[in-house]
Structures are given as C-alpha cells and as structure tokens.
Queue: 2 jobs
Job 1
Amino acid sequence: MKEKKISIYPGTFDPITLGHIDIIHRASKIFDEVIVTLAINPSKTPLFSTDERLMMIHDAIDDFENVRVVEFDGLLVDFAQKNSAKVIIRGLRAISDFEFEFQMALMNRKLANEITTVFLMPNEKYTYLNSTVVKNVTKFNGNVDSFVTKLVATELTKKFNSR
Ligand code: ADP
C-alpha cells in the first residue's frame, strides 16, 4: 500500500487568521493529511489560552476533511516522527520571514534529515497579515472581519472588552 503523505503545520496561532487558513487549505490539497500543530511555546506569552486557540482552530478547519489539530510542546521533529510526518509546512510571506525560517528549517534538517520543510505562499492579500497586527487593530476598535473568521473576531472583541 502507498505510504500516506502526512504533513504538520506548526505555529502559535494567537489567534488563527485567514492567512493561516489559506496555507492550511493549500496544504490540504497537496498532502493526504495535515496536522495543525499548536505550539505551547514557553518563551511566548499568548493573548489566548491553549484551549481558546484550539477552539478557534477547530472551528476554522471544520470543513477540511483531512486536517486535524493537536497541541504540542517539545521538539518539533520528535512530534513529526511520532506522527509519521515527513513534511513540516511553513508559510512564507515576505523576505523578512526568510532568515528565521531558513535557520529553523536547517536546524530541523540537522536534527532529522528525513523531514523536509516546505514553504507555501498565501494569496498576496494575506502577505501583510499576522496575528499581532490583528490583535493591534482590535485593541483600537478597528474592524478585522476581512482578516479572521467570525468566531475569532468575536473572541478578540470579548478579550479586549474584558481587559
Ligand atoms: P510561529 O510563532 O511559529 O511563527 P505563527 O502562528 O505566527 O507561529 O505562524 C505559523 C506559520 O504560519 C508560520 O510559518 C508563519 O510564517 C505562517 N503565517 C502566519 N501568518 C501568515 C499569513 N498571513 N500568510 C501566510 N502564512 C502565515
């Protein structure tokens, strides 16, 4: 039987944006399975808790049959190996992403040579979008409806109103 092509898409997703979803959509058409990997990164202090981020990702990937989400802390290549994933997906928006991504991809290759990092480019309308921009716009009551799902927009408003 042919081996299933499994990929993982790691990130902080604080919160998930339409840019992330664009990448997930592209990956889901290339790979048999995509595992969105929610990184519990101790060096970052996210606005949303792990459960909140998971809930927003679940809602966003509901329509994709071959995509699931898992939370994870530890070494990414260990997680990939345990899940028989040979590919790490990352999004590349601009040159500014390159240096960090390049370093991480080469480090992961050094740690696990059989795992390949694949970069996907989102639709150009999402190239300037990231989770920080979305949080900043909401903080000052700007409208983020064209950057995030309805649920994420509601959760963002709730979060800033409760502060
Ligand atoms: P991390 O802390 O791992 O960078 P993020 O949630 O910020 O987590 O990003 C996860 C991945 O999604 C990264 O590869 C990032 O480049 C990519 N990404 C983030 N925003 C976008 C976007 N608007 N379009 C395409 N890719 C994106």
Job 2
Amino acid sequence: MSDQGNSTASQEVECLLKHALPYLYSRGFAMIPPSFQKGHVIHAPFSLLPRKIPRAAYERAYELANPYSQLVDAIARERTWLMEVLKETGEADEFTGRLMSIMQRNIEEGDDQPLFLGIHRSDYMIDVGSDGRSEPSLRQIELNTIASSFGCLSSIVGDYHSYISDRVLLDNSAAGSSLSIAKLCQQKDGTFKNMTRPSPSCALISASLARAHWEYVSRNPSNRGKTVAFVVQAEERNFQDQRQLEYALWHASWKDRTFFDSVPSHFDLQWTQDLAGKIPVRRVTLEYMHEFGISAQPVAHNAEVSASAAMAVAGSKKELLIPKEGHEHLPPSERQYEEVSVVYFRAGYTPSDYPSEAAWKGREVIEFSNAIKAPPISYHLVGKKKVQQALAAPGVVEKFLPETQAHLVRSSFAGLWTLSKAEILANPEIVEKVLHAYDNIGKYVVKPQREGGGNNLYGLEAKRALHNLVQELKKEKGMVDEFQNGEDVTGTISSTEIAAYILMERIFPDPEPAKLVRLGEVLSCDAICEFGVYSVSLTDVSQDYKKTNFLLNSPAGHLIRTKVDGTDEGGVAAGFAVLDSPILIE
Ligand code: ADP
Ligand code: MG
C-alpha cells in the first residue's frame, strides 16, 4: 500500500474508533479487566467492521437451531444410552464421572420437575479445506448446552455494526467516509445496502427464561415470592452479559411494552398477561446453594437449616428455597425464604467451578429440587464432546431424530473419532484414522471433555497425547514402529486416560482482513471466525417421559467470534477472540 493509502486507512480507523467506543460504552459493552482491580471496567474486545458471512451458511445455521434442540432433548429422554456412551469417559475423567453420578440419582429417584429449559449455542466454522480450495461448508465445532455466553454483548456489537453501516450509507461524510464499510455494503449490481444482521439473542434468551418462570408460577401457585436464580462464579469478568439478562427479566412486565414487542409471537408469552409482573433475579454461587439453599426433602448435609425448611414448606414437592436477600445473616429460625422458579447456570461447567465439596453439594441441592433448570444435568451431559463424537458414528443421530432433521444435522458434522482403545480396535477404519492422525497431526485436533477454551491439543502436543495409544495399536496390529523424520515423541497420556478425549478433523476457515480492537488498540490482521446460533427450548414431560412435548423451540440469535488466523484456540473471555457480527454476502 502507498503512504497515502496507509494514511487514509489509519484515518478511517481513527474515525471508526471515535464512533465505536462511545456507542459501545453507552450500551454497556463492558467487562471487568483480568486484574479485577476494584471499580475498573474495560470494553469487551470487538471487531471494528462486521464480518462477511455467505447468506447460505447463515441461513443453514439458523435452520439447524431447532433440530439441535430437539436432538438434545431426545437424548436426555434416553438416559441409559447417555450413561452407556459416557461410561468409559466418566471412568477416565473424574469431573464427567461426578456429573454422571448426579444424573444416576435422578434416574433412580425420578425427576421432580417435568419442564426442561434449554439455552444452547451451536458453534460452526465455514470450512474451505487445508489448501483453502474446497467448496465452503458449514461444520459444527461444538454444541454448548450449559452457560452459553455472550448473547447480550453479541446483540450490542451487532447493533453497532448496523448503526455505523447506516450512518456511512446515509451520508458518506457523517462517519468520515468509511470506505471499508461502504465496500462491505456494496451489492453485486453496484448499489449499496445495509446487510448487517444484529442478533436478537439478549431479548430472546431472557424471553425463554421469562416463559419458564411464568410456567412455573402458573403451575406452582402459592403466596411465596418467586425468583429466578443465576448460578455464577464468585469472580465474574463478563458481568454485563449476565446483568443485561437480569434487567431484561425485571422489565418483562406488561407495563413495559419494549420487552414484549421485541419477542416474536411463537414464544407465546401472551397467555402470561395475568401473571406477568417484574421478575427478580438472585445471583448465587454453588457454595451459597450448599450453605443456604434448601428443598422440602433436604439433602442430609444441612440439618440445622432443614429444620426451618420443614416449617417453611408445605406438602412433599421439593420446592427450592433461598433466604430473602440479607436474611442469610439472621439465625436460621428467623430467616424468611423465597422460592426459586428457574435456575440458570452461568457457572458449573468446569472443574474450577467446584473448588470444594460444598460446591458439589450445592449442585445437588439444585438438581434434586423442583426448580426448572437451564440446563438440567442430562442436557449438560449431552453437551459433552464424547456425545458429539458418538453421534457422528454411522446411524446414531438417526436414532434420535426424524429422517429430514437427522440428515440436516449430520450434514453439519466434521469428522469425529473415538480415542477409546477398545472402541478403536472394534473398527479397522478407525485404527487407520488414528494412525493417519498421528502422522498428519496438523489436520486434526485432540479434545478433552472440557469447556471454556484453552483446553484442546494441537500439533506436537496432540501427537504426544496420542503416542502411547498409537504404540499399543501398532503392537496389536503387529506393525513395525518407525519414527517419522527422525522425530522422537514422548507420550504424555496413557492409553486409558486418552479414552476421555476425542479426535476431530481440523476445520480450515478462509482468512479475511480484519481490525480487532482490545483496550482501544487496533490490530489489523488476517482473521478467521466462528459463527454460533443460539437456540432456546422448553419441554414438558409430565405426560410421557419418553415423548418430547415442546412448549417452545426457537432459534434465538447468533454470535460471531473472530480471531487472528493461525491462533489455535477460540474464546473471548479466554483472551483469544473478539466479538463480531455478520454482514451477509450472496
Ligand atoms: P471449548 O468447549 O473449550 O469452547 P471448542 O470445541 O469450542 O471447546 O474448541 C475451542 C476452540 O478451538 C474453538 O473456539 C475453535 O476456535 C478451535 N477449534 C475447536 N475445534 C476445532 C476444529 N475441529 N478445527 C479448527 N479449530 C477448532
Ligand atoms: Mg467452544
């Protein structure tokens, strides 16, 4: 680029930043810095320009939203299958095993709550192959069934991209003549059109929580105050993304039309008119739930509090009660309680959310209560990467979905293979695949059963993880072991432990120039993106546990995370990616 080109580009960036930061700050696009310095907030990382997404891929990802919710629910009704698929994983991975033992108790004693709330996000990349020349195709990276975050910040960044595009198109001088935005809006016929797509995720995720809350209130009438509880980490940096859901719920009252007017009619909130008062939210930790949460048949650990619970609760239903705000400090016999209608987990997905036995007990207090859970533990376990891999085996997803939906869902799968030695040896094709992966590791990713970013293994690290397993497979097959290119590899994971991991084909998205903003600094680079679509569902199994009855099943907006090309991991909170939004291209 010429000097003049460079300076025009940097003027444009300066001008866009002057618009972006005030807009985003005015909407609460904020996070707490990693230092957790008291009173400090920073803007969440974002992309200065929206991201080009082919319309066909965008529409396909939306089309997949309802079938994926249907799939999660169908698997949750087949808990024996789920336990069987996760058996070896649960033995090798303590965290998964512990979650399974909680679900086992639900299987034995029965669920107390027939309504299941799903708030999922299915994440995809658009694959063009390792040589960058394949026909673009949408491939699922993973399905998040717990704590799917960024619904609210995604809405804000999308609104900003839409706003700045409109301003540039309205009057080229108003936003300092942003050539890049104008170019993004230019159609094939030379005309200009704003094809950005802001995400309705903040409104729709809160609408799903409101819908579940009102279902609970109408089915469990009592004079006791009802509240939604968000289970959160004790220290949370992404506070705005959660708080905006909380405030949307507070305004979900018929007196405040802005909430209802933003929610489509298939959410069927109309019937709630008589109930629809303001919905309070309490933020609790798992440890708080152990110390203060009670249900009518209390878990034996908390005898002192359970005595007062017995007084507070009539009947045998296991209502989940927490002390009114501030009553925690009173002696147990003087506390007053409120009833939790819906528990929304924004924590509990990673081992570090369980720093003590008390946190696990807190999870049990919730799981064995009558509150509606988002997600119930079965949905949480369906989101395990081992389940994603098991579904990709021939004929498996077809067991859970009608033909058309199964076909659609399968078309979004990348290659996924087991790393359980017994399962591999049962199928010669998988033996070949694992050996191929070992010798061509750049085309694969090795994934553990973890969430939150930063856990996957790539390159030499992945090869080391496979090493012991591959040596044993070769021995079983009577193959001579040769080191490739004289490369010596030391195994890091035993062939038993690797059963808790899966092998996945690596997806190669097409890099595009981007401007990524962190702490007000702009990085111009080639970047790739991950495109996620939220889906919300509410099912009722009070009639028949095996049969899904959807009260609600809907896509609920989207999320784009963009990262520098060549970065292996994703995740905004983990520091790899920035928040972005789509601009559709044909
Ligand atoms: P987590 O549960 O930690 O979010 P993911 O499966 O989403 O785990 O992986 C984390 C990140 O790693 C993704 O956001 C994506 O950037 C990258 N990634 C995961 N799987 C693949 C893959 N098959 N090909 C390319 N990148 C991948
Ligand atoms: Mg992910």
